[in-house]
Amino acid sequence: MHILALPDDILFSVVLYLSIVDVLALRQTCRTLHAFGGNDYLWHRLMSRFGLPLNLPTDVPLSSHATDILQQEAIKAIRLELNWRKPISHIHRSRSVSKGTREPYTHMQFLPGGKWLLTAQRYHRLLMTRHTTRMSVWSFDDVDNPHCVFRVELTGTYRSSALALKQNGASAWLVLGIEDDFQEFVEIRSISLREDVDSAYLRRSSPSPENWKRLELPFYPVLGDRSIQDVHLSEGVLVVTVAIFGEHNDISFHILLMDPEAGELRWVDPAFTKDFGLLQVRIQHGKMYLLEQRHSTNYVHVYDVPFDALDDKNSLLSRAPSVDTNLIDLGPELCRHTHSLPREVQSMADMLHVPRAFTSNIPVTMFDVSGFSHHSGYTCHYPFDADTGELPEKPVTSVWIPCRDDTSQQLVQIGTTGRRMVWMEHELETGRNRVMKFQMAKEDWEGGEKLLVVHGYLLPSEPNLPFALNACNCLAFDEVSGRLCLAFYDGGLHVLDFA
């Protein structure tokens, strides 16, 4: 019997056994199968098992998108995946974004999708006693015309930052961690994303006081010198991780929470982070994930986000002469996942590299920066249910990341979903740089359990490009779009697209 003679329901069941690549090929055979292969319900079923990151809003169900959009994004994701698995990935587009400004970039990060880039420049002006930080937001919505939509200079030394789009898509929250005159501050700004800062026809004005505020860190019962380590903004909650240095050179980590629209900075009770080593905090599905390393073990602690405590009315009512009454109680621990580290990992003097969001797992990566000639990286993936935000009782998957002798691993950038990762490998003896790539994921992105590890050069030390990697001092990476941005000591920016 010819396949076209099958009833639609049987043909539908048969096609569901095919991969997306096969369905795309089937649509090219005849008009009837082309029309059948474009069925919305069919593509919603096919995409439900698709394991590659898609350049679509994460807060919108896939079933809400039309078939044409799903097919287009699936093709882009598959092409990027195949290109990423090559020994040397092909560069599809290369573009210089900004000429040198003489102030080097100290931090860059893409928002998921690679359409928005946040950059920080920290420098010291002549005849001024204070350091200055310049923050910029760049738009790549039109890849042929990237431009700066926001720029501000402020006094203070850059610590950390976070950028989050608002629902209207035309504005965003920009949160900065700043050190100014030996004090730590959190600055919150509501910014527009519809301007062109470098346009000759733009009349710019200073932001009104209602659009930004600088907050001091509130009083805290734990004494010592404070330093803002990380700023994270997700689901309308601001998380600030602070390191406090004690009298005996001991370091403890503590957490501040806030609703950026209406609320105040409030400390989490230090009992929840007591004896923590390295710490990263993430928020997703209304849950707060505390990822920490203590002695020879990595931990993932899960709590409910205390939304009631962050409400402006509740926080105002909670102010009282007793300091302890204003501390946030996270409540009972929902679950905990542990992973015992190999002995070689326990001495790694590095931070925990964690993505901004989680999908099918929670990847945690560490690199050895102790300076020894023989060292490696280590990554472990905790099981994660993306629909519920829970941690299933499954074993942790881990793998070593071999590194060349006499090199240091710098500027680690892990993708939004943790599938792909890049970093700069610096040769200590020759001073040459390379951009490395890594991926640990399922070999079949539509099913199966077999893992495939991809590790190699993304850019060799002497790429056929109009710049030298030795002059690169900062980079940003978006795994969904396959976009890499390189910054150089002279303040120039260059963008490479691998999709």
TrEMBL record:
Describe the location of the F-box domain by residue ranges: 1-46
Concerning PROSITE patterns, the annotation shows: FBOX
Coiled coil stretches, renumbered? none
Report which superkingdom the organism of origin falls in: Eukaryota
Which named protein is this? F-box domain-containing protein
